[in-house]
Amino acid sequence: MKESYKQTKNNRFLLYFILLLAVPVIWGYGFLVTTDAIKSGCGSFTIVGLRFFLAGCVLILARLFLKKSKLYQRISMRDVSAGVVVGVVNFMGFYLQTVGLHYTDEAKSALVTTAYVVIVPIALCLMQKKFRWRSVLYALIFFVGMFVMTDLDGAEERFNFGDGVTFIAML
Prior knowledge:
Distance between the termini: 49 Å
Structural class: mainly alpha
Largest sheet: none
Helix content: over 70%
């Protein structure tokens, strides 16, 4: 019995590890696909609209499958309202980021977008009025790592309009 539990635990760890590695790959690939779509003449609203439409279809399919499982719960109007608000804010963020990609390159856009990792712990410290050096230190280490990993060789050195729009989207 213990061996079976240990095997299941190892399998879950491997699955979670693979999923954790897949997130940045998918996230980074999204910048390249979006840039290619922009270069082919697609508008920002069309790109983001298609992206959200496909995500909505996936969620509807997941909902249909979950309806038959024990995980199914009724969704209240409060849940729907909260989902609409979060969806609109998320859509606007993606839209502004896509508009920013019209004026800047993927590397700078990705670097500016990841700045939220630094801002979130600082904002949390300010809201809680309790400063946590460790959180801020980890966030800064992450941002320095992103800066080192981002290929900014071909990028403009100046902060341009696209960087500003991307920065607003990140907020």
